[in-house]
Amino acid sequence: MKVPFLFKFLGIFSLESKTGLEKDPEEFQFRRLLQLFWTAELMFVVSIVFTFQNVRVIETTAKLSAAISLLLVYFFIWQRKIYIARSLLLWILTFSFSFFIWIDAGIRDPGLLAFSGILICAATLGANRLFFIILAYVIFFILFLGYVNIAGLYIHEIRVLDFTIVLDTILLYTGIGLSIWYLIHELKVSMDKAIQEKNKATRSTLLVEHMVNHDLLTSLPNRILARDRFEQAYLHAKASHGKIALISLDLDNFQTINDSLGHSIGDELILRVAHRLSGIMREADTIARLGADEFLIIVDSHNDLDIVFEVAIEIMNQMTIPFRLKSIDYVTTCSLGIAIAPDDDIEFDALLKKANLALDRAKATTKNRFVFYDTKMNVDTQEQLSLLLNLRTAILENQFYLCYQPKVSLTDNRLIGAEALIRWKHPHKGVISPLSFIPITETFGLIIDIGDWVLQEACRQCKKWHEMGFEDLSIAVNVSAIQFKRGNIEEIVIKALNDSGLPPQCLEIEMTESILIDDSNVLLDALLRLRNLGIKFSIDDFGTGYSNLGYIKKFQVEQIKIDQSFIKKMSENNQDEAIVKAIIQMASGMGLRTIAEGVEDESTKQKLTELKCDYAQGFLWSKPIIAEEMIQFIQDFK
Fold first, then answer.
1. Global model pTM greater than 0.90
2. In which band, very low, low, confident or very high, does the pLDDT at 128 lie, cut at 50, 70 and 90?
């Protein structure tokens, strides 16, 4: 119901727009004083108007005086002098009704009811001290009235009932009733609002708790809640001598999908993975998302590790089913690392660390597999950390050097160049195998600085051969996928060529097939611009990876390097020979040259020559040798 404008102006119903009890006490008292002022003022005015001819002049004069005095209260209210207005209002009403009672029926006068309303107003306005003073005054006044009448000092006469008494009583009850209504209504509105605020706070608390304990994208438990679930599950399992498995899951090619197709597709894939995992887990198990494409599954195995095997296999099977996103099917696989409590550890963080170690082992091999943690992994990790610290020192102290393995043409037994291979000579541990430190450099990004140095040094050395008169020789450098993904491979290669003065056609860049999987236009454009300069590209370790001919054609590589695992067993294994033959024929049909690595004997060389392999390298001619030895080899080669 809409409140009339006049009432809003008067302040009588201003409580409908604000409650104010709990927020601004001064504003609350301001509105209550306005309400009580207008209630009292109207009560006096109505009484004067309707009883003017029926009461004594002294009573009318008193009412008029009270009404005029209340205007002073109104002045102080709008001056925001709340304390003065409050005190003045209460005392004007108290003394006015004391006077009306004294000149009328005394202790039998209905006006005594006004004191109840005044005390209610004092309590409503928060005038605690004034409330007790007025209460003491009222008690004294009533005692005084009773005493003077009982003692016969002054006898108040009982008036004959008339319209004036009825009207004054009605006005009195109306004023008291409105005062009580103001208070009760205000309390009710405030209580309703307090309940709403409490419900809102409860909802906010629940939302915050959910956000603290759950992943925002998938609504799965996060690390915090996963830890709590694990601790509860482990306590239950401990009581029944059971085991709890932590399965750390990581999607194998998520980063490629996320980078090439956009984060929206990546987020949608994560949601689908979370939904699929939730659909295959038991009610007692917990699935959590720790970040990006990392998930954690907590499995109660009931002391039966076959359950863990079954869960791991089911997860991997489900992940191989294509995910349909925006009308396109995306295939992804996952790797799993598994740690068992209490066998491997009983603390959540320590157990998760070991599950992640097992996951790293799974991803470092063939991916798309699961690996259980074993104690040797922790030893390996400590060794890797020690190696990492030494690697940083090796970069600063120039402990790396290059070896060169000659490359020979099988058709005319001509030396065509060499492959540059990095070596690390530790001051205390001696020469450390690249197989030990290259994976670490790639994991921690050190391969970028090391790779740049290898390019610079290899080009410089090849230019030195040219200056010695061997201008037909070329140099092959293996470039890591990390270097390509950094985005400035073109700049680094051109700088190495410019600094050394080596012609671009004498540089061959070897790259793994995994680089080509990054179907990026930026990478493709960079490779094509380098190729247009005359730089050659070859695929290293062909046959062990994706072996996708479409990528080879798209990126316009010139040469395929057959992995030595097939070459070394050619003489013993017909199947390996068939693979080598197929690769050579396929490359020839595409106009590509082939080079075989790992040739160690004459019979293998002869077989490769018969199969029309173009080039070869291996111990048959030379192991990797340092620069000085390579110069001697070049001079002696026939």
1. no
2. confident
